[in-house]
Amino acid sequence: MPTRPGNSALECEICNHKATTRAHLREHLKTHSEEKTHVCHVCNAAYKHISSLYRHYGQKHKLRVYSGFTCL
Ligand SMILES: [Zn+2]
Ligand SMILES: [Zn+2]
User: Fold this and answer.
1) CA distance linking residue 57 with residue 31, whole number of Å
2) 49-63 pLDDT tens trace
3) Cα–Cα distance for residue pair 18/6, rounded to 1 Å
4) Would the pTM count as exceeding 0.85?
5) For 19, which of 24, 44, 54, 59 could close a Cys bridge (C-beta 3.0–4.6 Å)?
């Protein structure tokens, strides 16, 4: 979980789409993972390859990322 305050937990950090439930947001985020550009939801850094983004999460944010962003 990002240590960001506020009630933005159900809002997509990439396109600001507002989800009604966590499950909905999770499904929504899958649409982004299918795009060519993978964007860090913490600092908006973009990578062509999802593996590069996963490494970025680990190195920059000390986050472990599993498929579909389900464990963030
Ligand atoms: Zn989105
Ligand atoms: Zn980042």
Assistant:
1) 19
2) 888 888 999 999 998
3) 14
4) no
5) 24
